[in-house]
Amino acid sequence: MLKKFIPDQYVQSIFDLSIEELKEQGIKGVITDLDNTLVEWDRADATEELVAWFEKLRDSGFQIVIVSNNNEKRVKHFADPHKITFIHSARKPLSRAFKTACDLMNLKREETVVIGDQLLTDILGGNRGGFQTILVVPVTKTDGILTKFNRRIEQRVFRAMKRKGLIEWEKSKDNK
Q1: For residues 39 and 150, what is the distance between their CA atoms, to the nearest angstrom?
Q2: Each residue's pLDDT tens digit, 7-53
Q3: d(Cα 155, Cα 51) in Å, to the nearest integer?
Q4: What are phi and psi of 11, to 5 degrees?
Q5: 17-to-37, 72, 82 alpha-carbon distances in Å
Q6: 174 or 62: which leads in pLDDT
Q7: Where does residue 61 rank: exposed (0-12), middle (13-18), buried (19+ CB within 10 A)?
Q8: Cβ pair 57, 30 in contact under 8 A
Q9: Would you say 51 and 82 are in contact if contact means Cβ atoms under 8 Å apart?
Q10: Max CA-CA distance within the chain?
Q11: Which domains does the chain have, with CATH numbers?
Q12: Count of other CB atoms within 10 angstroms of residue 62
């Protein structure tokens, strides 16, 4: 059961991802969470650094879809200025929105990576859907009410994975 929570890769930030390595693995599409993955959950707009990252991805031939459990107003306000396709109210960890994102990009699962900051939604949903998954450290330590609840459960999952030797990265997420 715990194996469904294990990401294929763990990085401190989306900016630490190697776009070249993703290309070498045959990845052509990025499905990314929004809140606390790309920007703080309470930040309305993308940072300059993030806009440059979007451009670098696109210049490298990648397609991008934001898949968020947040509402349409929030996700649309963020995604539209950057002409990024999005799926709101995704109901992660259900895998339907991830599959829809693949269809929107006209890509196979093997050509797509799921990036997110939560084990219980992004990683579990991506793994259940058969995608490569990448866990990032949340960009801020604060969370909305529902996410705070998920983080408590997530910490228990991390501890259990660590006890069973399932975590392969040097430092667990809670030891940054």
Answers
A1: 18
A2: 999 999 999 999 999 999 999 999 999 999 999 877 879 999 999 99
A3: 31
A4: -135, 160
A5: 13, 27, 20
A6: 62
A7: exposed
A8: yes
A9: yes
A10: 44
A11: 2-175 (3.40.50.1000)
A12: 19
